[in-house]
Amino acid sequence: xxxxxxxxxxxxxxxxxxxFRIGPSVFRDPGKLSFDYLPDRMVHREKxxxxxxxxxxxxxEAGVSSNAFLYGPVGTGKTHTAKRFxxxxxxxxxERDRAIDFALVNCRQRMGDDAVLLTLVRHFDAHFPERGxxxxxxxDSLKKHVEKMxxxxxxxxxxxxxxxxxxxxxxxYSFSRAAEESTTAKGTISMVxxxxxxxxxxxxxxxxxxxxxxxxxxxxxRYDRTEIGDILSDRIGLAMHRGTVGDELVGMIAEIAxxxxxxxxAIELLEKAGMLADEEGEETIEAEHVRAAKAHVHPTDxxxxxxxxxxxxxxxxxxxxxxxxxxxxxTMGETEDAYEVVCEEFKEKxxxxxxxxxxxxxxxxxxxxxxxxxxxxxxxxxxxISLPELPxxxxxxxxxxxxxxx
Length: 406
Ligand SMILES: Nc1ncnc2c1ncn2[C@@H]1O[C@H](COP(=O)(O)OP(=O)(O)OP(=O)(O)O)[C@@H](O)[C@H]1O
Ligand SMILES: [Mg+2]
Fold this sequence. Notes:
Layout: E1 8-11, E2 14-17, H1 46-62, E3 67-71, H2 78-94, E4 100-106, H3 112-124, H4 135-149, E5 152-158, H5 160-167, H6 170-181, E6 189-195, H7 206-209, E7 217-219, H8 225-239, H9 247-258, H10 263-279, H11 287-296, H12 302-307, H13 311-324, E8 330-331, H14 332-345, H15 353-365, E9 370-373, E10 383-386, H16 392-404
Parallel strand pairs: 3-6, 3-7, 4-5, 5-6
Antiparallel strand pairs: 1-2, 8-10, 9-10
Helix pairs in contact: 1-2, 3-4, 8-9, 8-10, 9-10, 10-11, 13-14, 13-15, 13-16
The protein binds adenosine-5'-triphosphate and magnesium ion.
Residues 35, 39, 42-45, 72, 74-80, 196, 231, 263-264, 267 line the site of adenosine-5'-triphosphate (ATP).
């Protein structure tokens, strides 16, 4: 072989020069850092798991359906804990001759009753046609599958607020009715609802809400520095070669991510830092790789969402933030008044009512504001707007700064 200075790989007995360096990697199994890798156990989620077991064990032990509502901020392990729990419960049930099956639907990706039901029916019948069946027919088909298979189906409705906003609580209500009508000999349906928003269930009416009593709520708080450190150490053991990530590096990543309490951010920082180390041909990850990774990977926090806004939407949000300072919520009318004042100040032409309404919905979809219909006690139904995450003061400062800079 005469390719001096170049690496060679052997492909079916022919030596081929390659232009990339084939060196060692800090990663032993990079798939273990991927977003769809489900850990065998969720570190520091023992309490939540045990609580879910307390809520759901009647499914196994008495054949009755049970529901739970999981909520907490971004990256706190809601989706993965729900999945892990269902897998473990399925095993626990099968050891007791009970058949449990579960299906997870992300309601933000599968918007509306129709799309959610289609996903669930296809869980049993992969070829179920996309068109030609009504919501009622799909629901019927799902119930028949569940009965025929004699399984108890746990439906995980992830990011359920998106479903509730688009279609209301009809589907959730149908599932709980199906559970009530069914006799124990046949299969029935339970639900695990998941949301970042503690108030997601406010979109339900009293009838649907009654199946999600307060006691069925499981809270997922943000992780602190130590907890993120433990989650990272666990993952490093699975994904990285021994000795490539020092303890102080784990501490450094945990420190950065603990500001948001977000485990996903921590894992993404680790992955990116490892890639940078590999690119430089380093055998270990260094602090500088983590710092560089931080510039590439962003937490899914509010500041990031703010950056996505154009001027028109920033003005609307500023109006809401200013008006709401000493209140818990404001009405659409109050928003409109404040918006006109803000537009005048920043010399922008105010948009018409329907456009303003559209902006508010978009801010809601981004999770920057929360909207809900006023209940009884307020004359006429109106939309109430509140701020879910950031204090108004911080929002105002940030928005004024970026708007002035134009
Ligand atoms: N306690 C934990 N132990 C191990 N891994 C965890 C833990 N918590 C979260 N993770 C990992 O962090 C990532 C985010 O977790 P998950 O998707 O469950 O968060 P989430 O609360 O559903 O976030 P979001 O609100 O954005 O949907 C996943 O890769 C998950 O495996
Ligand atoms: Mg999730």
